[in-house]
Amino acid sequence: MNNKVALITGVTGQDGSYLAEFLLEKGYEVHGIKRRASLFNTGRVDQIYQDPHDANPKFYLHYGDLTDTSNLTRILAEVRPDEVYNLGAMSHVAVSFESPEYTADADGIGTLRLLEAIRFLGLEKKTRFYQASTSELYGLVQEIPQKETTPFYPRSPYAVAKMYAYWITVNYREAYGIYACNGILFNHESPRRGETFVTRKITRALANISQGLEKCLYLGNIDSLRDWGHAKDYVRMQWLMLQQEDPEDYVIATGKQYSVRQFVEFAANELGITLRFEGKGLEEKGIVASVADDITTHVKVGDIVVAIDPRYFRPSEVETLLGDPTKAREKLGWVPEISFQEMVSEMVRKDLEDAQKHALLKSHGYKMAISLE
Ligand code: NDP
Ligand code: GDR
């Protein structure tokens, strides 16, 4: 019987939802912080929602925000968790250039608020702390592949905020003996990935295009290289990091790299669309892909399926990321179980299912909105 209590910030996000499921399966009592929104924002955790009126619920949601110190302190005082997973963040790199100050507050100072609350409440010896650090810390990479000892060079307000969070986590571990760890996670995706991150944007748009719901997928830098894993594999590692004798920081990655362009090709193949990229690089900034075969009903030879829109270029870009997960493998026995191909296929299948439902509704005269961000 597991009597452990966990608190997850960002429980309504991609990782938060998978982690909550994972911990509930392990018998944890799970508390999550959700933000007040004008529309329901718990879609990713609805399947594990438990009516608080039922006997002995194991999953609780609290209203809160990482920018609100008294709120965080009160929740920590009430919940007195054994483990805190700080997954909440303004997590979109491009958006952080638009809202740099808010990003610093939520992602940087928000982490300090939680650590300081743990200290203030005298929970230093009880509460273990996980910080969602990121491969974006490596930014302009200083070494290939990147590992725990690779120097940081952040390239966005998001990454700079996360750099503060990284170091304040290390500092509270060293200064106050808190069991606090950084997971330096490389990109990880799933059908629950937010629709404006590039992988989900691609699988969703191509699925819609294959059903005649959209015409063209507009992207930014398609030569960008990333080390993409599956979120389910990565939340397991977040938990593992808090179960060790000593707190340490770990890189979590697959050790394999693909370009955005390759991601498009894999996703298109899944849908039976064959793309021929016509532009050689970003210089052309025009059409970069056209369809080679009329395999699906709605896509014909010569149709432009992917085009470059400079609007999606970033003021300073992270061109290449490739992680070295040797430490996680050797010390924690962690290896990713879901391959890149399996992940792309799962994402495409889910988005195709949704697109087919929408196409059916449309064919019966129902109107539906598709966001094209
Ligand atoms: P998501 O964007 O899917 O989820 C972010 C979560 O944080 C959401 O629940 C969101 O709430 C919440 N949130 C945003 N702002 C605040 C705030 N001010 N106060 C409280 N909660 C807030 O991110 P992921 O699940 O993909 O990532 C989880 C964490 O891991 C993030 O910190 C991210 O920066 C980091 N990370 C992610 C990687 C990835 O590839 N996915 C890689 C490395 C690090 P709402 O639902 O209301 O928007
Ligand atoms: P990233 O993820 O910035 O790595 O941050 P994202 O999917 O947004 O971008 C990956 C790469 O694709 C390029 N790109 C585009 N990106 C988006 N979003 N939209 C486009 O149209 C587009 N076209 C090309 C980007 O320029 C970039 O090079 C993610 C987030 O989850 C962070 O929170 C996390 O810390 C890092 O991963 C690791």
Automatic annotation (TrEMBL):
The keyword Coiled coil does not apply. Pathway: Nucleotide-sugar biosynthesis; GDP-L-fucose biosynthesis via de novo pathway; GDP-L-fucose from GDP-alpha-D-mannose: step 1/2. The gene is gmd. Pfam families: GDP_Man_Dehyd (PF16363). PANTHER family: GDP-MANNOSE 4,6 DEHYDRATASE, GDP-MANNOSE 4,6-DEHYDRATASE. Its EC number is 4.2.1.47. It catalyses: GDP-alpha-D-mannose = GDP-4-dehydro-alpha-D-rhamnose + H2O. This is GDP-mannose 4,6-dehydratase. Keywords: Lyase, NADP. Catalyzes the conversion of GDP-D-mannose to GDP-4-dehydro-6-deoxy-D-mannose. GO terms for molecular function: GDP-mannose 4,6-dehydratase activity; NADP+ binding. Belongs to the NAD(P)-dependent epimerase/dehydratase family. GDP-mannose 4,6-dehydratase subfamily.
